[in-house]
Amino acid sequence: MPEVFEICSEDDLFDAVKNLESGSWYQDQHIQFVGWPRYQVRLRGDDFSGGIPTRMFQPLAGLQRTIDRAYARTVYGKDRKLSDAEKEKTELIVYLEHGSSIFNTDLTEVLNTMAGKAVGKMTGPQITATVLGVAAIVATSYATVAYINSEAAEKEVDYKIRVSEEDTKRYEIIANLAKTNAELNEQLADTIAAQAQLMRKLKDTDELYVDNKYLIDGQTYKDIQRGAKKEKSYDRLDGNFMILAVESGGIDYGYRVKVKNVADGHELFVQIPQGTLDQSRQKELQAGEWDKKPVEMQINIAKIGDKIVSATLIDEGLALPF
Q1: How many CA atoms are closer than 13 Å to the CA of 6, on its beta-carbon side?
Q2: What pTM did the predictor assign?
């Protein structure tokens, strides 16, 4: 008789994954979810006390689709419409509390059905890994937390959801499973996209909880999407440049040249204000473009972070190098 590994908690789930990764999982061993997990999203705010604002309908439908697609991909091997009976199993149920709305569904039966009816192209351990991965992605907050922290870091916004070393390891486990499993990779992308759509619809004071954990409010998510406000810094950039193009017609400040820095290959546009160059210097500028020879330039630049946002040639700062 096949051995059954019961999963009653998140700890049980990750223990099962560790057994799979270590090679100690038996070919005919099965998983069975017992009273866990529940998929739960809580929204708190002034608009969630006695109902659901219409602005949330589309993102909530997106959350529902992530569960439906996970079921279809695992059981049938592709996206497809679910039967009415299957939809009843995956359907999100809404509970209203004072000041919040809770959207959840018991995934126990759904995951057990997925484990029992998974497409035949997968072996026993592959089926187990897929179902465990779906449970880890959908029923926990790890993927959404990693997404928020990654976005904030990329946009250089000072916001980070604190995670323990164990939480970090668990997300890495989920990410590694997704790298080698097409179904889980799609599920991870679906879940993050659905949560992002939900966060975009939050008002400034609305709060998002996943798996009973506070993640973010609407104002903070907007700040992350806008990115940090960065001050301009000013510097000099002197060196030899190849002149790629010269624009003059219709430019009321004089010339604009597109140049490539010989030292590092970076390209930028440089403004040459009216009156900066006398006639002989203008000829040197043209010669540099026509002859494809480097020209020595002294440039004032403005930067935001590492990006040059404007560049202006200094008076009498153009000369052919010796």
Answers
A1: 3
A2: 0.71
